[in-house]
Automatic annotation (TrEMBL), chain A:
This is Putative ABC tranpsorter. GO terms for cellular component: plasma membrane. It is found in: Cell membrane. It comes from Nitratireductor indicus C115. One of its GO terms (molecular function) is ATP hydrolysis activity. Residues 321-566 form the ABC transporter domain. CDD domains: ABC_Mj1267_LivG_branched, TM_PBP1_LivM_like. The chain crosses the membrane at residues 6-30, 37-55, 61-79, 86-103, 134-153, 174-198, 218-244, 264-283.
From TrEMBL, chain B:
CDD domains: TM_PBP1_LivH_like (cd06582). GO terms for molecular function: transmembrane transporter activity. Its main location: membrane. It comes from the Bacteria. It comes from Nitratireductor indicus C115. This is Putative High-affinity branched-chain amino acid transport system permease protein. The chain crosses the membrane at residues 12-29, 36-53, 59-83, 95-116, 136-159, 188-209, 215-234, 241-258, 264-283.
């Protein structure tokens, strides 16, 4: 019986680890494989504080959480600079370095001998000194950690995390603060892992570096991937299976060290098999209506949508965004030089020119995705030079991408909701301190997103996954997502390319209506019919220089430009 | 000064070792873009195979080396055909093969333990000590340098002179384009997995002769291979060689100032700094 309680305690520890790792790997898409090192930090901090300083509960636990969270920021730094393969390898290297420091810092950590004699929890005469009693603490720990993870992921913040995972630059382009999200998800994930570490130290009353090797990280990773990345219950299920399954090996006659190796072989095989045969895991990420955490049938009057879709200016046209003498060089190559543009409300401005003319570079400069080598950018007369893309979105300048960059593994409505401005639920503190505000706002935002989808006539597909849309529908969703930002300056990078005439006739009036409502619109376009159809003013760029500015009719009648364009 | 010369020589010897590991790993990585982490335990497997043949069974070392090369090539090809190929067919995102490779790594590493036991396995060979002025080295050190030079020259000739070699280079440049112009990328992938793994068997045997084989040796091997490739710049085999030597020298000369117990960490710190500061590698422009 004791044995079963022991396995149950192990399950609780690994369920905490898998849940916290799932936040990082499954929701944020950050494959930083140094989780066992953070687990180790939690365990060692508790062990050292209890054995050398004799600090009482809950001081060591809190210290473990804080210290691991602090250290995780060191790991977050690479994650801000590199991604993919590089992040995996660099985090594995960090895991090795942390373990090496633990082993070599003998005076503090006992080196390879580890630290023994860590006292278990005791309250008066009641000590949690048997597996059955300790299970109470382990279950409380798991419940608390799971609740924190649940609160984080079933929230606007969790949705923003997934958007960042799907496409980081698109997440920035809808106003999400990548730095804040990465650092905080690292810190929370590490803090939760440290809870498991602290429990580990108390339960085994011993910590040694062997328990926190890279194999341990891969073991936890296998749980997350088996259960289902991006599904909280999945990680817990994965932990349950991978803790219990190898215990069955104990019933086979084989030496202990072989059994231990067989256990690891099983984990490795499970990891590979899941990736090949069921990459989404046993419990896939929630989709469709289940992806939402409030009902979507809430009613809402038109007025508020109008507020979002309207520009802030009155009936007259005035300059909103102005770039002067902008110049961008990459090494020796000049992508664009001496580019000056003024985007006015109620107006649609077009950028045309052959490929490589510098049109997209101009967009990148105006929206903060690139820093100009030279020149000035003003928004309503105030310089916005050097501001980050998400700041500019908040100030009212947003853009779309030529290659769409939708959040493909999220639903259509999620793609729109995530872009809505000023969401209290994007801040972690609000999720825990102002849950009711967050919920009420979420209800409003969901209804608002529905209205925007209705505006582009995608409301029928609101709960479908973006990946399943047709190309034309994807283009409409790009427009809807950009509108959701509520920005008054909207820059569209080739919104019409690849569309047939019928769909064109659907999108063109949408843009015109937006301009009529006071937005300042800029589009990059190759289709001259579109340009002549909707633009008030056209810039012709070639080889990074502005060749001509004027009304579409003026530019079309210039034979030299026509020759350049069609050369 | 004598210490400096000795550390320099050690750096060059270790550098040859790392360069060879980098060459094998880099060949696979730059051609297929798969981060074949299981390269590590395959190195371990090769070392234990050589021990089994030449130590346990008492056959000549050359037979042991041949066996190690064969086993490594088979395991490398096998992992491509069974695991990575299946993932490629599924259209898995680029990170997934690496994650799967981590799974394969713990399977192979523990399989070594189950099959051969966990203790360190050594092979006694006649290793004479030589002096060159104040610098001391053993004949195994000489073999390490010689084996690297021979393999590097042979590989260079193979890549430039033969049809398959040129196909490999083409795929390294641009896998999509290689496919478009009619190169059989499946065949090329199989060849690089076989060749890269076979190359790794040589440094594996050298470790067996020098320090003995242990189940954990593969981890250091794949990391050093990766470091060499990253330092040199992905896609450049010459870069991988330069990277291997650079890491060998930094690690060895670092001993001048850094206590020995930290030597193992130096390469990880180098890797960390490289990826953070210059992920495109030091010599990424050198190839053109």
């Amino acid at each position: 019986m004791e044995y079963i309680y022991h396995v149950a305690v192990l399950f609780c520890l690994y369920a905490i680890l898998a849940t916290s790792f799932n936040l990082l790997v499954g929701f944020a898409g950050l494959f930083a494989l140094s989780h066992a090192a953070l687990y180790a930090i939690g365990a060692y901090t508790t062990a050292i504080l209890t054995t050398t300083l004799g600090l009482p509960f809950p001081v060591p636990l809190i210290a473990s959480i804080l210290f691991a969270a602090l250290l995780s920021i060191v790991i977050a730094v690479p994650a801000l600079r590199v991604s993919g393969h590089y992040l995996v390898i660099v985090s594995l290297a960090l895991q090795v370095i942390v373990l090496q420091v633990i082993v070599n810092w003998k005076s503090l950590t006992g080196g390879t001998d580890g630290i023994s004699g860590v006292p278990t929890y005791s309250f008066g005469s009641f000590a949690l000194d048997t597996p059955a009693r300790f299970l109470i603490a382990a279950m409380l720990g798991l419940a608390a950690c799971y609740w924190v993870a649940w609160r984080l992921t079933r929230s606007p913040f969790g949705r923003a995390l997934r958007a960042m995972r799907e496409n980081e630059s698109a997440a920035q382009s809808v106003g999400l603060d990548i730095l804040y999200m990465k650092v905080s998800v690292f810190a929370i994930s590490a803090g939760l892992a440290a809870v498991a570490g602290s429990l580990f130290a108390r339960y085994f009353s011993y910590v040694g570096a062997d328990s926190f090797s890279i194999n341990e990280t891969i073991y936890i990773l296998a749980m997350v991937i088996l259960g289902g990345t991006g599904n909280l219950r999945g990680a817990v299920l994965g932990a349950a299976i991978l803790v219990v399954l190898p215990e069955l090996l104990k019933f086979l006659p084989m030496p202990v060290d072989i059994a231990d190796k067989m256990r690891l072989i099983i984990y490795g095989c499970v990891l590979m098999a899941v990736l090949v045969f069921r990459p989404q895991g046993l419990l896939p990420e929630l989709r469709g209506k289940k992806a939402m955490f409030v009902q979507t049938d809430a009613e809402r009057d038109e007025a508020d949508t109008a507020k979002l879709l309207d520009g802030e200016t009155g009936a007259t046209s005035e300059t909103v965004l102005e770039g002067r003498n902008l110049c961008k060089r990459f090494g020796g190559i000049t992508a664009i030089s001496d580019f000056s543009i003024a985007l006015r409300s109620h107006r649609i401005t077009g950028l045309i020119g052959p490929n490589g003319a510098g049109k997209t570079t101009a967009f990148n400069l105006l929206t903060g995705f690139l820093k100009p080598t030279d020149g000035q950018i003003d928004l309503r007369g105030k310089s916005i030079l050097g501001k980050k893309p998400h700041h500019l979105v908040a100030s009212g300048v947003a853009r779309s991408f030529q290659d769409l960059r939708l959040f493909t593994n999220m639903t259509v409505i999620e793609n729109v909701v995530v872009a809505l401005p000023n969401q209290a639920g994007h801040r972690i503190s609000n999720l825990f301190l102002k849950p009711l505000t967050v919920r009420a706002q979420e209800r409003e935002n969901t209804a608002l997103a529905m209205q925007i989808l209705r505006f582009v006539e995608l409301d029928g597909k609101a709960h479908e996954t973006a990946a399943d849309l047709s190309y034309a529908e994807e283009k409409l969703l790009v427009v809807a997502r950009l509108l959701a930002t509520g920005a008054e300056v909207l820059l569209f990078d080739e919104p019409m390319s690849g569309l047939d005439q019928t769909t064109l006739r659907e999108i063109l009036p949408v843009l015109r209506r937006l301009a009529e409502r006071g937005k300042a619109i800029c589009i990059i376009e190759h289709n001259l019919d579109v340009i002549t159809g909707i633009c008030d003013e056209v810039f012709f760029l070639d080889e990074g220089r502005t060749m001509a500015v004027g009304s579409p009719a003026e530019l079309m009648s210039d034979p030299e430009l026509a020759e350049r364009y069609f050369k | 000064m004598d210490l400096f010369l000795q550390l320099l020589a050690n750096g060059l010897i270790n550098g040859s070792h790392y360069a060879l590991l980098g060459l094998g790993f880099g060949l696979i990585f730059s051609t297929t873009r798969i981060v074949h982490f299981a390269y590590g335990p395959i190195v371990t497997f090769a070392a234990y195979t050589a021990w089994l043949i030449s130590g346990s069974m008492g056959l000549p070392l050359i037979v042991g080396i041949a066996g190690a090369v064969l086993v490594a090539a088979l395991l490398g090809t096998g992992s491509y055909l069974t695991l990575y190929r299946a993932l490629e067919r599924n259209g898995a995102p680029p990170l997934i093969p690496l994650i799967a490779s981590l799974g394969l790594t713990i399977v192979l590493e523990n399989l070594v333990g189950v099959l051969f036991g966990t203790g360190v396995r050594t092979l006694d060979v006649d290793s004479s000590v030589h002096f060159l002025g104040p610098v001391f080295f053993t004949s195994i050190h000489v073999w390490q340098v010689v084996s690297f030079v021979v393999i590097a020259v042979a590989l260079g000739a193979f890549l430039r002179r033969t049809r398959y070699g040129r196909a490999i280079l083409a795929m390294t440049d641009d896998p999509e384009m290689a496919r478009v112009i009619g190169i059989d990328t499946l065949k090329v992938s199989i060849i690089v997995f076989a060749l890269g793994s076979a190359i790794s068997a040589v440094p594996a045997v050298m470790v067996l002769l020098k320090d003995g084989a242990s189940t954990h040796m593969g981890f250091a091997a794949v990391f050093m291979g990766f470091v060499a490739v990253i330092v040199g710049g992905v896609g450049s085999l010459r870069g991988a060689i330069a990277g291997g030597y650079l890491v060998g020298l930094v690690e060895s000369l670092g001993l001048w100032q850094i206590p020995t117990e930290w030597q193992g960490s130096i390469s990880f710190v180098v890797l960390f700094l490289m990826i953070m500061l210059r992920p495109q590698g030091l010599f990424s422009m050198a190839r053109k």
